[in-house]
């Protein structure tokens, strides 16, 4: 496995012997006031609460099949908008990677909404995962406060483009490892080195299928954004 750091291929990491990514912290618990887990689509709130004092646009990025659509769907308090299309043989040569069982892919964007602590609304925009859609990020990133970058440890190299693109666009971000059953486990230092993360960039583990886990990853991001920008979204 390679490192994202330019020309330092020797910094590759090997899986640590078992364990659940011991060095990589799970994000801290969700605050008591965070929105409850949404139930079936019909139960989801439609209107922004009157208590809301601020809003922020957040990108959810990552390579093909890393779990972006899944995360937005599990955390959104409104019925998420998704633009899934069936992957066909015609795209097989360009749309590589991702879950082998995966049959659809996002072709425009995902959209969802979550209210934190009754006060801060996050509008979540999921990017398409195929590399050929990277140029569309420039538009999607317009006006965003930051990004949650999902990573799959089964193919760390697949995330390099996403992270590099965020840096190019000057979008602050945090990283969340979305764990799959067959994901190799790495220590935090190994992962940070392989992904070439700055020391202050949050690195957490999440399960994109789980509402609370996804929420914690977003809270880690927002906490980081508030700390680094010194501003509360308005
Ligand atoms: N085991 C496991 N499966 C997951 C997890 N997250 C997503 N999946 C599955 O992985 C597949 C890919 O998830 P998506 O959410 O479609 O991935 P995506 O990043 O939106 O993919 P693209 O839009 O094609 O880039 C789906 O079949 C999910 O059910 C996870 O945390 N654990
Ligand atoms: Mg998707």
UniProtKB/TrEMBL annotation:
* Keyword GTP-binding attached: yes
Its protein name is: ATP/GTP-binding protein
Stored InterPro entries: Gliding_Motility_GTPase, Gpn, P-loop_NTPase
Task: Specify the species.
Answer: Streptomyces desertarenae
| Pfam families for this protein | ATP_bind_1 (PF03029)
Spell out where the chain crosses the membrane: none
Bias regions of kind Low complexity — which residues?
14-40
Region (Disordered), start-end ranges:
1-42
Family per similarity comment: Belongs to the GPN-loop GTPase family.
Does the keyword Repeat feature in the UniProt annotation? no
């Amino acid at each position: 496995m390679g490192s994202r750091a330019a020309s330092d291929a020797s910094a590759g990491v090997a899986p640590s012997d078992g364990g659940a990514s011991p060095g990589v912290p799970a994000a801290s618990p969700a605050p008591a006031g965070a929105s409850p887990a949404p139930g079936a689509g019909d139960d989801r709130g439609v209107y922004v609460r009157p208590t809301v004092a601020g809003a922020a646009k957040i990108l959810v990025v990552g390579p093909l099949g890393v779990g972006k659509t899944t995360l937005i769907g599990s955390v959104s308090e409104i019925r998420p908008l998704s633009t899934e299309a069936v992957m066909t043989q015609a795209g097989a040569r360009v749309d590589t990677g991702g879950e082998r069982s995966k049959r659809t892919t996002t072709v425009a964007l995902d959209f969802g909404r979550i209210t934190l602590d009754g006060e801060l609304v996050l509008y979540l925009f999921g990017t398409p995962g195929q590399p050929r859609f990277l140029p569309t990020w420039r538009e999607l990133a317009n006006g965003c406060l930051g990004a949650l970058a999902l990573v799959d440890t089964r193919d760390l190299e697949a995330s390099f483009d996403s992270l590099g693109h965020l840096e190019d666009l000057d979008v602050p971000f945090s990283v969340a490892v979305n764990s799959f059953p067959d994901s190799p486990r790495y220590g935090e230092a190994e992962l940070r080195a392989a992904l070439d993360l700055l020391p202050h960039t949050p690195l957490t583990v999440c399960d994109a299928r789980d509402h609370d886990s996804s929420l914690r990853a977003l809270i880690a991001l927002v906490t980081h954004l508030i700390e680094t920008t010194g501003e509360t979204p308005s």
